[in-house]
Specification:
Blueprint: H1 3-12, H2 27-30, H3 39-52, E1 57-64, E2 70-76, H4 84-89, E3 94-98, H5 107-120, E4 133-137, H6 142-145, H7 183-195, E5 199-205, E6 215-220, H8 230-246, E7 251-252, E8 268-269, H9 278-281, E9 288-294, H10 300-336, E10 343-345, E11 348-350, E12 355-368, E13 375-392, E14 395-397, E15 400-402, E16 407-410, H11 412-424, E17 430-431, E18 436-438, E19 442-451, E20 462-470, E21 473-475, E22 480-483, H12 489-496, H13 522-535, H14 537-549, H15 551-554, H16 557-565, E23 581-583
Parallel strand pairs: 3-4, 3-5, 5-9, 6-7, 8-13
Antiparallel strand pairs: 1-2, 2-4, 6-9, 10-15, 11-14, 12-13, 16-22, 16-23, 17-22, 18-21, 19-20
Helix pairs in contact: 5-10, 8-10, 13-16
Length: about 575
């Protein structure tokens, strides 16, 4: 279709004529990056790219938002592999570039469209798209994008108006990867399961202090996950950082958030994200997750340029190293399938080891504020300085467990809830067609339960301490057997191990199991306690010892009566018992 006719057709459909430009320019480019376009521009540009380059671009919907907007993705490759099966059959690595998960942080959308056009027009990256597939999601949070106004990002310079952090249902999508509450995340996981990207770039903008660095690049596996795959994780992360520095950026390799809010002297602590975050999630699938954070106080044109360079740099590195990294990923999959019976870290922590780094900041003062009364940091951007700051970036495993040799047993009553999670993440399981009896199974009973005092993403989070102990399992038909011997074993453990920081249990999905449901009246407990003391000298001695050695226990009538209730046949053995069991048997 001729450009003029295409413009008329787009206008007739209510879409912006800008998308019909022969140069496929964005509103951002046309405005000198003072503005960013609305979501209808995304829809129009996606389709316009496919019309302009039908052999190299496939524009498709991968979901629908709660407000009815199509979730758009573009598969871009000059190899002709524009479908998952074709890419996999040809052994081409897939790079997922995700923009607008926080829709006010929209650099990735405008940088990505410009880069796709430049690649297809041969202005940059000659031959890169022959050797890989770029899977581009311009705006993940489409409903949030259309919650559009100035001041949605008060700590950010430009564009003039932008979308909002959360979805129409007020989910923060970058807290939703593993729990997958939102329809948007369920759609994204479907896309990931289909395409199995080797690497994923999540494009963000920071909040925080004022300093000279324009971008941070972090990612895993570099400190976590499969040790063999860390070679690829380091190579991609460090390679991007080196290329950005050569291109004039000032990158850092950690997230630059101060230990003490608003106090530069407190320095930084590096960490490993949990799987609610994109860059914590993908390593559990034995794939590379890179978090890109441009600095919010740089101008919008500068931020878009740094994002453009980052994605191009990543594509260059994948083109050069794709076959090697794909083999490392396959090897990691094979090793993960043999993790049963071995120890696994569920989280990581920084040691106390500190090193001093040069960090490019500005002159600043910290003086009491007449408004808040607190110390207020004021930066002078006309006076660059080099700050000498402490950084703790030596990371070691925190909570560790020994995985079951066989897998997990899910009772029929919990099967639907657990299966929803397993299916969303592409995990393997089997529905039992006949009852299963396992006399060597294990149950987790919590000895301490701490519910969060407030809501987090619509959940009451729960922290459990306790241990797995032997207990026979009786699982009815309709329950689940979930083998640990599968490529995404780390992800499985992070969903079903109750002490994992983003497990179903941690997100409160099993809180009913940790609430006491039956009680013994005080006068009944008094009567039963006297009977128990009279007939059991050992119990009497234990009670008297507790009274002597534990003042808090001695001073609590409720604790004293519970001492007997827990030892009485009336006690509910299901209290504080995690409903999912483990087994060392393979079924």
């Amino acid at each position: 279709m001729r450009p003029a006719l295409l413009a008329v057709a787009l206008l007739a459909c209510g879409l912006p004529a800008i998308a019909a430009s022969p140069t496929l320019q964005t509103v951002a480019e046309r405005s000198g990056y003072r503005e960013t376009g609305r979501y209808d521009e995304v829809v129009a540009l996606c389709e316009a790219f496919q019309r302009a380059y039908p052999a190299s671009v496939r524009c498709f919907d991968f979901g629908t938002t709660p407000e009815g907007r199509p979730m758009k993705a573009m598969a871009v490759s000059t190899s002709g592999a524009l479908e998952p099966r074709t890419a996999q059959a040809r052994g081409l690595p897939v790079v997922l570039v995700q923009g607008g998960i926080h829709a006010g942080e929209i650099d990735g959308k405008d940088a990505g469209f410009k880069l796709v056009r430049d690649l297809l027009q041969g202005k940059v990256g000659a031959g890169l798209l022959d050797r890989q597939v770029l899977l581009f999601v311009p705006v993940f949070n489409a409903d949030g994008h259309e919650n559009f106004r100035a001041w949605n990002r008060p700590n950010q310079r430009g564009p003039a108006e932008m979308g909002f952090r959360v979805t129409a249902q007020r989910y923060n999508l970058n807290r939703d990867y593993v729990k997958a509450d939102s329809p948007e995340m369920q759609a994204m996981l479907g896309l990931v399961n289909a395409w199995d990207p080797l690497a994923m770039l999540d494009l963000h903008v920071t909040d925080g202090a004022k300093f000279q660095h324009d971008i941070s690049i972090t990612g895993e596996p570099t400190n976590s996950g499969d040790e063999g795959l860390r070679e690829a994780g380091h190579a991609l992360k460090d390679g991007i950082i080196a290329k950005l520095a050569a291109q004039g950026s000032k990158p850092v390799g950690f997230y630059p958030s101060f230990v003490e809010d608003d106090n530069p002297a407190s320095g930084f602590v590096h960490g490993v994200s949990t799987p609610r975050f994109s860059n914590g999630y993908f390593p559990l699938r034995n794939r590379i997750g890179i978090l890109v954070e441009t600095h919010s106080w740089r101008s919008y044109p500068e931020r878009v340029r740094a994002t453009y360079d980052t994605v191009l740099d990543a594509l260059e590195l994948v083109a050069e190293n794709g076959p090697r990294w794909q083999q490392l990923a396959r090897d990691a999959d094979a090793r993960a399938s043999t993790l049963g019976g071995t120890w696994l870290p569920l989280d990581y922590k920084a040691t106390d080891k500190v090193r001093t780094i040069d960090f490019l900041g500005y002159a600043y003062t910290r003086t009491p504020s007449e408004v808040s009364g607190a110390l207020m940091t004021r930066y002078d951007e006309s006076k660059p300085e080099v700050w000498k700051l402490p950084l703790r970036d030596e990371l070691v495993p925190g909570t560790t467990i020994t995985l079951p040799r066989g897998g997990y047993l899910v009772p029929q009553a919990q099967a639907v809830a657990v299966a929803r999670h397993l299916l969303a993440h592409g995990l393997q399981f089997r529905v039992l067609t006949s009852p299963l009896r396992d006399d060597q199974a294990q149950a987790f009973v919590a000895d301490r339960v701490q519910f969060s005092p407030g809501s987090v993403e619509g959940h009451q989070r729960t922290t459990l301490t306790g241990a797995w102990t032997p207990q026979p399992a009786r699982i009815a038909a309709g329950g689940l057997y979930v083998p640990i011997a599968q490529p995404k074993a780390r992800l499985l453990a992070n969903i079903l191990e109750p002490q994992a920081p983003d497990s179903m249990a941690a997100w409160g999905d099993f809180n009913n199991a940790f609430e006491q449901k039956e009680y013994m009246e005080g006068y009944v407990a008094e009567e039963e306690a006297r009977k128990m003391l009279a007939r059991d000298p050992a119990l009497k001695a234990e009670f008297e010892r507790r009274l002597k050695d534990d003042p808090a226990f001695a001073g609590s009538p409720g604790a004293r009566l519970e001492f007997f209730y827990r030892r009485h046949p009336a006690w509910d053995p299901g209290t504080n018992r995690y409903p999912v069991m483990r087994t060392d048997r393979v079924y």
